[in-house]
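Good morning N.,

You mentioned wanting to compare the apo and holo forms, so I went ahead and generated the holo version with zinc ion. This is what I fed in:
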Amino acid sequence: MGKDKVQIFDTTLRDGEQVPGCKLDTKQKLVIAERLDELGVDIIEAGFPISSPGDFKSVHEIAKLVKNATVCGLTRAVKKDIEVAAEAIKIAKTPRIHTGIGTSDSHIKYKFNSTRERIIERAVDAVAYAKSFVEDVEFYAEDAGRTDNVFLAQICEAVIKAGATVLNIPDTTGYCLPEEYGAKMKYLKENVTGIDRAILSCHCHNDLGLATANSISGVINGARQIECTVNGIGERAGNTSLEEVVMILRQHPYLNLDTDINSKLLFDTSRMVSQKMGMPVQPNKAIVGSNAFAHSSGIHQDGVIKQRETYEIMDPEDVGVTESSIVLTARSGRAALAYRAKNIGYELTKLQLDVVYESFLEFADRKKEILDDDIHQIVEASNISIKSIA
Ligand code: KIV
Ligand code: ZN
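and this is what came out, ligand included:
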């Protein structure tokens, strides 16, 4: 049986760019958009066109440039927003308007001083208006994570009737547990009339570190689009990380779900976005962190040198990392030292290794990490005759 496709909706240039200090200019956004297109994302959320003339220009230029992906512009459920977004994206090969409104009781009461009935009317009007400009209209129910499921189903049903093609169910505050978020998707799948005419989309924030888990739970329960950002960048604790969801689906084939992402570009894309946004990637970040395929303890190193799969669940080359690294520290063992010494040209016998290892440990207790130059120094100072294989 063929795998079901999960669409990747990248919002690095919209939700990701909302982070203080991460603002990009149009030129930088174009370079990133081109790379996202090459990476194979299905939808690029290029920005929020009404928010500023600069954002309008960026969305418009991205719409002109992108060859494969759908280009999407965000709006509130406000006529002027929709008109401006429609203008910005109209040149795209496949344009999408992403419109919506807060649906939780807290948003309805405090943000809008409104009622559930009036919110449904505004949502329907916004979707119908967006539909007069483009065929592809995505509706977001902001704070859906804390919205009552019965009301959420009612508003979803109403916007599908008005022409929505995608229903975005954001866990805006990153509050849901994976079971809860998955159950929400299942509830909508089972209780919304017309749901077969729309795609359910996961949009999860990471306030409790659950954005990736919630998105995966969402697709296991019927959603077929994930909204995410490169490196998980985004407001507060960030959004779902693109590279994580893509590799989770790929490494768990029995889920029968996959994306069209060219995973070999993940590492390079991560570095490109990090550099352009001036936002470093934490070393222990899953998939793309500098330590994601680095082994430093003796037991792990010994295993990886014998057989990579002992301590790695994916091939680094699949995400564009050339090879696993064996990092030498005072916790490393003989196998790792021999391996690294061999890489730079020293073939050590067992006896020679014993001698060199003693000096290595003394050196390593004084230094955080032993580099190739240090190995040369240690070997040469060991005063033994070593066969160089270089
Ligand atoms: O987190 C959220 O609710 C959003 C919407 C505007 C889609 O980003
Ligand atoms: Zn968001």
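The mean pLDDT is 96.

Happy to go through it together on a call whenever suits you.

Best,
F.
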